[in-house]
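> Could you send the Pyrroloquinoline-quinone synthase prediction when you get a chance?

Sure thing. Input:
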Amino acid sequence: MTNRLLSPAELEAALRAIGAERYHNLHPFHRALHDGKLTKGQVQAWALNRYYYQASIPAKDATLLARLPTAELRREWRRRLIDHDGTEPGTGGVARWLKLTDGLGLDRAYVESLDGLLPGTRFAVEAYVHFVRERSILEAIASSLTELFSPTIISERVSGMLRNYDFVTEETLAYFTPRLTQAPQDSAFALAYVKEHARTVEQQQAVLNALKFKCGVLWSMLDELDYAYVSPGNIPPGAFRPQEDA
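Output:
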């Protein structure tokens, strides 16, 4: 816990240190995904479970949007909903993620039904939505700061998957290209907001804890995938079962 008030630069450094230690690009499942060590079924399981996270982001952001006190803040946060939901059917990040699952050979209706989700994925994603809905505006905005680190993981993921999997194409991974510009724009705003509004030791600690929580959400989702699909015999009843394990 911080025992003194940090300068804005020190607070930013502390936030970046959390990402350097806890961001899920360090997780063994991500390393295996990037390095081409997963089967197609394991990649399918990742994409299917990650869909629930992607589809929940606009719902999460809408809960925060409803609480923002100024038109300026609402306009800024509304852009995130547009990025993910699009302006018409078939546009936006969620639709592009479904093109990814399509490209991996998953039935779209099955993906959207959520019937194949791992229980741990559901719990982790819903905990994040609940956190943003119930915590302070400052903590909710701070929890989005994993976007500070996402360009690195996106670059690794795209280059590694294209290099190592013959069933992956640039079109399949089209979701990620806009995120290389959207995420830095979003994180720049959130970081500036946090640095300006975390004005007490307690508020700064809450901000740091919010980012740790969000890193934990993303890490735990990969823990669940690793346990279910990399360790043999651990797929829970009702969850997606790759054809090679059927």
